[in-house]
Amino acid sequence: MAEQKIALVTGGAGGIGFASAEALAEDGHRLVLADIDGEGVAAAADRLGNGSLGIACDVSVPEAIGDLFDRVEADVGAVSVLVNNAGIARPKDFLELSLEDFKAVIDLNLTGTFLATQRAARTMVANGIAGAIVNMSSVNAQVAIPAIAAYCASKGGVMQLTKAAALALAPHNIRVNAVGPGSIDTAMMAGVNANPEAMKMVMSRTPLKRVGDPREIGDVVAFLASDKASYITGETIYVDGGRLGMNYTC
Fold this sequence. Notes:
Blueprint: E1 6-10, H1 15-26, E2 30-35, H2 38-48, E3 53-56, H3 62-75, E4 81-84, H4 99-127, E5 132-136, H5 149-169, E6 175-181, H6 190-193, H7 196-204, H8 214-225, E7 236-239
């Protein structure tokens, strides 16, 4: 019997992170979930079962990322699949956006993704693991919303980091890809869901005329982590209900 592969999902306590973990678990991976919400991630791991582990970790802190991988490798084993999902937005009027808020978003969404990718890749290379890394980008890597300038900058960075890491790690048979969600029914979108006018505006830019379910993102994550995507690297797959293809509305 082949040894069970270990998948680590950051931001795994709920939403897209947990949905990705569910999809990976169904594909036979043993899951490690990391999240700043310690109680939430422990409960999420319990819901997954099958030896899943939940670890409290703030991915915006470089030392915490090193400690996370050290613990996973000591207690479970080397990671074969990494899903960099943890992220924040901090909406703010552009003229009022503070450097502190801008840096907080970049530190978590972009720098955290870089450091976790690098740390995971070092272990994969050292152990000869043909691994897969999936980063969470966004349609806002391509388009923009003025109230989330830092988020847009971070996700554009994730898109380019994905390409650069894919090129660097291809000689080691490590694939790096990203998923770019559109409007997905998560806590980050709760305010829009509760506002009919905001939802009307979102639907005007969504040809499929509905928000996505987190599992629809999780299934694409699992695909990119699987052998079915064995010749795909450096790509961002946009799961957005058709938004990026839309020129104008009428």
